[in-house]
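Example 4.3 (complexes with small molecules)
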Amino acid sequence: MKQNEYKFSYEVYDAIDELNEDDRYLLNKAREATQNAWAPYSRFRVGAVARLKSGTLVMGANQENASYPAGICAERVLLSSAGASYPGDPIETMAVSYEGDGVVSDHPISPCGICRQTLQEFEQRTHHPVRLILAGKTGKVYIIPSAGMLLPLAFTGDELV
Ligand code: THU
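Answer. The structure with tetrahydrodeoxyuridine bound is encoded below.
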């Protein structure tokens, strides 16, 4: 028997002002993008903004539906938009923030399982890591070098004939 170990490391900053100017700008845009959420059911609004390799910015915000499973997370709204409007232009960095009624937005949240799967495939198809900046409206900021790191032993299209 052999024991395998999976480790990944990420950066933790105490606050947004420790980031470089580009990252600060992107995180502030993600914080603003929470306003574009349609979240009358959860009242939890997530904003995402990505900078593509070309420099173009792409936005995402969660879009819910009265038929709950039809709702879509901010991250996947963004990935669909980037894939549809800018094919062949990889994502360099995506920032994600949130707010919610009665929620204290003072720590990072991390993408859900379905978004991790979608992020992983986006990286694979663009041959480029998606660097993630995760933070609330205040507080610590996490920077994860590649979203795929959040999904060890991922199921990928390589398994399908
Ligand atoms: N949500 C996102 O948009 N991104 C995340 O990373 C976590 C959850 C959305 C889905 C749903 O509209 C609401 O937040 C509550 O789960």
